Amino acid sequence: GAFPLETTDNSRIAQRLVGMQLEYLGNDYMERYADIIGRVTLADVGRVAARLLDVDKLNVGVVGRPVGIND
Question: Which whole-number Å values give the CA distances from 33 to 28, 36, 44, 61, in the listed order?
Fold first, then answer.
């Protein structure tokens, strides 16, 4: 994921720490992050997607000429 890339220099680390404080995530959030993400289930993702995405309004963009994709 992007998390390790967001902690590559002092400025990004400072931004992450400020965000953690603003969201009340706790001082140990970066240590708990992998476990938190690891506990997300497919059912969790499906439940949130069903609440947030409207398949009747979904647009899909395709780049290139993939095999099996027609107009």
Answer: 9, 5, 17, 31
Q: How far apart are CA 50 and CA 48, in angstroms?
A: 5
**Which two three-digit tokens encode residue 7?**
């902690």
Report residue 45 as tokens: 């993702």
Which tens digit of pLDDT belongs to each residue from 11-68?
888 888 899 999 999 989 989 988 999 999 999 999 999 999 998 998 888 888 888 8
- Whether this prediction's pTM lies above 0.70 is answered by no
CA angle, 1 as apex, 18 and 9 as ends, to 5°? Answer: 45
The Cα–Cα gap between 53 and 59 comes to 11
